[in-house]
């Protein structure tokens, strides 16, 4: 993992920037390639809870999202 993704409730996920850029290039491409704060810190923060972010990352990595009990 060379990048971290954080959420509003403090969870931090270690991720791979090439996978993020490949799966959602319109969003992650500019963040990873351009000289911005996120590229320098190697972290992006989302205003969503950890469960939602975990599901998003699961979809990015596997193209599937498992159902979770709430």
Shape call: globular
Low-pLDDT segments, ≥5 res: none
**Helix/strand/pairing class, anyone?**
alpha+beta
Number of strands: 3
Secondary-structure element series: EEHHHEH
What do the pLDDT scores average to? Answer: 92
Strand order, main sheet: write it out: 2-1-3
What's the helix count? 4
Q: Which percent range describes the beta-strand content?
A: 15-25%
- End-to-end span in angstroms? 29 Å
Helix proportion of residues, in percent? 40-55%
Please state the CA-atom Rg, rounded to the nearest Å: 12 Å
**Major sheet characteristics:** 3 strands, mixed
Give a written overview of the molecule.
With 70 residues, the chain is an alpha+beta fold. Helix 1 runs antiparallel to helix 2.
Topology summary:
Blueprint: E1 3-7, E2 12-15, H1 17-23, H2 25-33, H3 37-41, E3 43-46, H4 50-62
Parallel strand pairs: 1-3
Antiparallel strand pairs: 1-2
Helix pairs in contact: 1-2
Brief sketch in words of this structure:
This protein has 70 residues and is of the alpha+beta class. The chain is built from 4 helices and 3 strands. It has a 3-stranded mixed sheet.
Which keywords apply here?
alpha+beta, 70 residues, 3-stranded mixed beta sheet
